[in-house]
């Protein structure tokens, strides 16, 4: 048997990596999917005790998990739209990420991206409901797009928004396909393929509904662009 | 054995339907894929003899087939970009279809659609190279789009153009995905899925690279809209 | 921050586009999927107040949403088969769309298409239960098919009906694949592919179960064909 | 090491099963794909020597292989459309299989099925070019369909023909999808799915372009139906 | 509006084809999926009244539908494993179909096939639990396989059973893939592909879990083989 | 007809966008796929004349196109591994992008990314042949990874390298799947899916073999990080 | 009808193979999916009575089945994480299999593999939570990996762990993809493809979530390596 | 820039890993796909010079590469069926792997596996042409299967052979799907899925056509089983 590893905390049901910040500069995160509300609370508490000076983020929380977190961790801040919670002080924003979404149904993913960016030290400018079938709304915010350090563009269905936004500006752009749609959207596959095949150069893509991953990436870009 | 059918012409290697016009009002068409140049010539000649008063269309012609048609049927008119040829008088245009394409590589499919529309009695307004990553070109032709009786919108890669065009106007719109792209475009599948999931209502779709099918449909709409 | 946009109404949980009619000539529509019954009611009411002179359409309503709409908006007209509701006067019909369906299970999609056509100003002729395995029913309605300005053909399983109908007449035809089937129907993919590969020229296709999109398109064709 | 097996002939590059007839009552067959012309000739010769009283069938022969077979085995009978050859006496026909095909491009597969049926002892009635977009041709042969002991229905693109034929008669029906098509036909996948989802009961399906397999099956049904 | 069709019965929620027997010689069938228990009862009753002399079959019945059928139609005979019911006299068996299944989980599909065969006039020999990983069971029933007029072979997972059975005998064989499995079985796709690619010639395939379709086909073969 | 657009140059076979730099700050690029060598030369020459002060990039050049460019444009600089050429002065590097590749076969894509980065104003540190099956090579370059402003990680087969690199450092990381592999790599699909599902947060992905797109993005990040 | 087979036990709802040990040397196993708790108990009891001297294993047990087994078979030993139970003495371990898992969510599959190995006579060394994004944990256990007779490596998402482990040691390695993930993980397909395309030679793969199959295989290798 | 790594040899076009044996105990291997004949020769020569005492293996060699290797490295031993070559002494065999193949077309993959096993120190027993449609051949070699230390089972089309072999014996079994087949075999996908879903426990699978990977794995198992 190997020695206990000082870089992990053993909770019985999980060995928690409490050393990630040292390696990558990012805060600790709890991925809530498939965990019981009590497990989420236990991990949040452990990570917060090790790093009381910076926020811990919990994502993909069920309504039950959100309620238990609210009850057991009164200092936690809940974001029901993002299905997420934070515990501990959120850093001051460095740089700006514009989080752009196509439709109302994309709001949970956009909110997860926005909160992740804030927890990872970036600033956020939210621009919602600017789908490609109503260009006037998008053209009206052209300046806000150009002033950002990074763009996170969230869209479901055909996933066309990143191509249009990417043609308007040269700001680094991360596209997030969502599972919004039905039939031949195949759970977000259509939006994913659309974004991977974007005719606008310099568009990168993350997994379907992965607002968290896009947020981590964009915050890194925003922080180092503004330093 | 059944009686010879007066509605077909037996050429040995094929029984040609010479009665389609009576059923659907459309001209006769030869699909060149998988046929030898001599077979294309033989079918064109047969159909032209039966219907000397209206054009016969041959599509998907290889360079060899185009050359043999040019040599053996001097009255045929060739369209090398569309990989197509016609024999016999093309009807006067009724109504207008705007054929819109995203990029230079989409030209063969757009040209096939345009020629098909003309042969089927519609008028054509070609609008090329108006990809979504350069919106200014598209916005500059907004009036031409609105004045058409039907739109045929051709695009490969992410296939976003029909969504943007469909948001600008209420004209009936047929989207044609092309196999232009690489990698995760999967031979046009990405563009096809994008168009099927368009967030703009009232977008219909045909098979990948099927400029012919879109042209037949659009010409029918244009003709009856203008009658 | 940008100025409030007079073309949208901000309801807190959504910014509603109240300007679509000006751009495309179409009525306002609420897509009910993923919205709470109260949100559906709020958007219907807002859109109706802005445009009391023409119908607003709500689609993809759950049984709960239908019940809440009935309770809170007594002037709304419900169509339970289509899972839809309308509020405000439906326009007089211009032109005729024949809505053809293959089997009893396709009824919800056919009903959604038919109601959409009516709300968008087209007239409707419903032709149900004319699957390709019983040709006699289909041949009996051949004249009704030929007299329409546009056809909407709804079918699941192998999706063969549009090919057969498309061979009988030259009327513009929009095919709607449904998710009816099991096993290798893959949620409507089989019907979708069948329709995209139709051997009848001039068949266009919309997304799986997208009766609404087919209806918008067909109504536009019928209106301009009959003007 | 095991003993030489009297039921196989070892040709160095292959061990040929010369015992199949005893097990299944079927003649010997050489699948030509991936074999050199000389290998095809060698196997044909070996099988013919073992069973001079009944035909050996070679399928999927390249033009080169057909030429070498013609040169080296002058008693062989070639069928270039079916890309096949036979050596030895073909049995008298027992029962009748109607081989129905949708379009000219499906001819190679239909011819392979027809020749296979003959070699396996069934009789054949060929019915070609009866695609679903021209129902009149199909309705004209309704009696021939009903009089057969088994139907082999060959179609590419959307693969709708078996559904229509299957609705006209209760004769056992084997459907053969072909790779004819382009774009979203995905090499015959669309036709295959269409046939598997047929709304006509009692339709069975074989692999794409597998005229041989359908022929073996249909001949068995025809032989035992007529005995 | 067209005239009432004497070949259909209009029940309000469905137009029932009461003429199929005249066209194909098969009994009437109610596909229970997506129908309410009351609708199943109503259709069964109507079909039985029109054809009291032969059985009507209802398939894909939910436990609720089975219970309501038992309560409202006391003369109906239920087969809970097959999730099916019959009403009216089942014909005397003509010929024999061996229904072979690989594992216990395949029982519902095998039972649906067996009942369908009986209702369509064929005789049945059930051979269960003879998966390819235990060849001794399969080799023990070799004679029963060879004596049948047709084989229906039901298997999930890798779907290998038809290839092994097809190598043992030359009896016509219909393979039925089932959705039994997990992970990369993809809901029966793996078994379906395995059967379509069988190395044993003369294997035909139906849709995943389609015991009914296989039964219709096999009964037709058995009846005409034994006549 | 619309007025000539001063932002495009009409070459007959294409309308070239000569205004992209003004919109996005990026240089002009010619995508060589599907263009004749003469067309590539013509577009390169036109773009160079409009913007003699900065490099024009041509990618996806066939060996023929590379040869014709070398012959007709003696000032062009060729990069045969990247299948690319440049014309005009390459800007001084701002910031650093580490371009990391897994195997020798990934070299063309890595080279395309590296050249694109240089043309777009970023600096490059190439790190090759550091596949995950030989961790010692990767661990040896850990410092170079951490010092970069952005990482481009190129890998085929299972596409695991970005996950391992992403766990070593918090630098923004763009993953490029390549089509290197066979069988179940499905032309790069396996690597693409692996990268999209990376367990390392903050990994973004571009299309298969899209070294160009990754390069554009990474150069933007590097430039603004170093400003 | 055939004779009762002494190698099977007929329980009415299933014929149980009680002879597998004689053929393959493996213990009897009950696959619980799709079986009622009472059926699981009945089969466990029958197999235990026939082979009281060695353990019977039941896998894929629902919480209900686990509870009924605990109640009705007090001698059974339950493993809730593995969703499994055993009845009868587990053999002494021969050789060692290291069961390595990437994340907490992979625990059920790793536990199923571990228990299967023990029941099949192998010894187990569990190594958990060693995902590729935190290499230090993996490098810390390098010696344990090298000392094993076989490795079972369990991972979801991108499935990269087997490639990294396979590069560290030459011990035979079986990779198990899990369905852990979301979006483009497509139920474990991404991990499966990643493992099949591993750049580390000598990696073999089993079905998604198939801890049982990997365990059977690894125990066989460990037993014969240590004999 | 980092120091030269003593564990690699830099050939300009590639950095060759000359240290693998120390890590995994396996010989060096050159994967020929995508390399020029001269590159293959150069790498073979370099690896042989570093390790003259043991064989180097080159796989996936084109006919050109085989010819150049024969010309430039007269001591190399060529295996044209396996498309491979070795240079240096092959070790004495330890243990036995039975390499079983289904059909003649699978020979190249079986030969690659067999040669790989020999080069990696295992002994080989080849058993060819034992497809599941002719069980008698397979049952005749049952003893040879049971006496092996490991089985490599190679099959295309439906990939059923591993299930049947795996049911006959408890020897560890590695299945290799091949791309042999057409139509719905989808380049070996059907065989791959069949093997992953095998109903025989303890079957593991490698990539399509990956005889090399299976050979590496099987040799490791055979060596440690016989030590």
From TrEMBL, chains A, B, C, D, E, F, G, H:
NCBIfam families in the cross-refs: LarB
Protein name per the record: PurE domain-containing protein
GO biological process: one example: 'de novo' IMP biosynthetic process
Domain PurE: 95-227
One term of GO molecular function: hydrolase activity
InterPro entries listed in its UniProt record: P2CMN_synthase_LarB (IPR039476), PurE_dom (IPR000031)
Name of one Pfam family that matches: AIRC
Coiled coil ranges: none
């Amino acid at each position: 048997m190997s020695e206990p590893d000082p870089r992990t905390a053993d909770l019985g049901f999980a060995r928690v990596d409490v050393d990630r910040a040292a390696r990558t500069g990012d805060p600790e995160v709890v991925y809530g999917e498939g965990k019981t509300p009590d497990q989420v609370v236990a991990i949040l508490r452990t990570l917060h005790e090790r790093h009381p000076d910076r926020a811990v983020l919990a994502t993909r929380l069920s309504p039950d998990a959100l309620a238990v977190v609210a009850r057991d961790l009164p200092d936690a801040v809940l974001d029901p739209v993002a299905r997420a919670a934070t515990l501990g002080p959120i850093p001051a924003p460095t740089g700006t990420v514009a989080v752009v979404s196509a439709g109302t149904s994309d709001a949970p993913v956009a909110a997860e991206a926005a909160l992740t960016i804030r927890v990872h030290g970036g600033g956020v400018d939210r621009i919602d409901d600017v789908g490609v079938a109503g260009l006037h709304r998008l053209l009206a915010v052209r300046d806000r797009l150009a002033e950002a350090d990074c763009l996170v563009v969230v869209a479901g269905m055909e996933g066309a928004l990143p191509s249009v936004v990417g043609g308007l500006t040269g700001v680094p752009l991360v596209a997030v396909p969502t599972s919004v749609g039905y039939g031949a959207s195949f759970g977000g596959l259509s939006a994913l393929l659309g974004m991977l095949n974007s005719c606008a150069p310099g568009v990168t893509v993350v997994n379907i509904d992965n607002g968290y991953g896009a947020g981590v990436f964009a915050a890194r870009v925003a922080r180092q662009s503004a330093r």
